[in-house]
Design goal:
The protein has 295 residues and is mostly helical.
């Protein structure tokens, strides 16, 4: 189909633009479907009718569709042909739908409807393939689209990347505490809850640092939302689980963190004072003119 598009994209005295766009978009989408089918073939040892139930396959499909959208964004820039732009949007939405439905709702190892295991080593495991790697690709996609001035799609990709980063570190802490086989049944311990809170704090600090470095209000706003979520979890869930002096210290630390965060975000996101207008003497007014040397 792509070859046919190249053949039709010749000066023949009539407008074949729509046909060329349709052939290119159809060919590229078929390539993405083939790549997704290859992921299924590899994940299930050739059994194409096997249940869709592993985090590795979820991550593989998400990465395939995101890679396709990223390739289109890189190849055709900010103003591609209309159908190619639509093909990129379809691939992007398919990736988000896959990770949202299968990764967060169905196969999630902790709260999923059909929780999947998370085999592998610490950090380098099925959780990284299903959540961390897609978050990295979404961040790259968001940066590219933001540089091209497409703030809407960049914002959606950046927000999805932050959500997946939070999910990944949360499940990594859960996996470290209870093993890879069963993340759903064991209750959350006090130490586990505070470890999750610390992991969230690391993600928020990284976002804030990147936002300041890149001077990106979008990243700073996302880090502000993550900060509010982190402090809220500590105040509503983790601190009340403590007793006595430790509870008082926890609430004091959370209050101090909230004040520091408020000061920081007011500095980086608050309104900046307007620059004072330059003084300029009125033409022909001797009282406003600079003094003259009368010697």
């Amino acid at each position: 189909l792509v070859l046919a598009a190249r053949l039709f994209d010749q000066p023949v005295g009539r407008d074949d633009t729509l046909l060329v766009q349709a052939l290119e978009a159809a060919g590229l989408l078929l390539a993405a479907v083939f790549l997704s089918a290859e992921v299924r073939h590899l994940a299930n040892a050739g059994a194409m009718t096997a249940p869709y139930a592993t985090l590795a396959e979820v991550g593989g499909h998400t990465l395939a569709w995101l890679a396709f959208a990223l390739a289109l964004a890189w190849r055709f820039g900010a103003q591609p042909r209309r159908l190619l732009f639509a093909a990129e949007a379809i691939a992007f939405c398919a990736a988000l739908a896959n990770v949202a439905i299968m990764g967060l709702v169905v196969a999630n190892p902790w709260w999923g409807l059909a929780p999947a295991a998370a085999p592998g080593w610490p950090v380098a495991n099925a959780l990284a393939l299903a959540f961390a790697a897609p978050a990295a690709l979404l961040a790259i996609y968001a940066a590219g689209r933001a540089a091209q001035g497409m703030t809407g799609r960049a914002g959606a990709a950046a927000a999805a990347a932050v959500v997946l980063a939070f999910v990944n570190v949360t499940l990594e802490v859960r996996r470290a505490a209870h093993g890879a086989a069963d993340l759903q049944t064991p209750p959350v311990g006090v130490g586990e809850g505070w470890t999750m809170l610390a992991a969230w704090g690391v993600v928020v600090a990284a976002l804030a640092a990147v936002g300041v470095w890149r001077r990106s209000p979008l990243i700073l706003v996302l880090s502000l939302g993550g900060t509010a979520l982190t402090i809220g979890k500590g105040a509503l869930v983790d601190a009340p689980a403590l007793d006595g002096l430790s509870r008082a210290i926890a609430f004091f630390a959370l209050a101090a963190a909230a004040l520091l965060a408020a000061f920081f975000y007011l500095r980086v996101l608050g309104p900046r004072p307007a620059a004072a207008p330059a003084y300029r003497a009125a033409a022909g007014d001797p009282n406003l003119s600079p003094p003259q040397d009368v010697r």
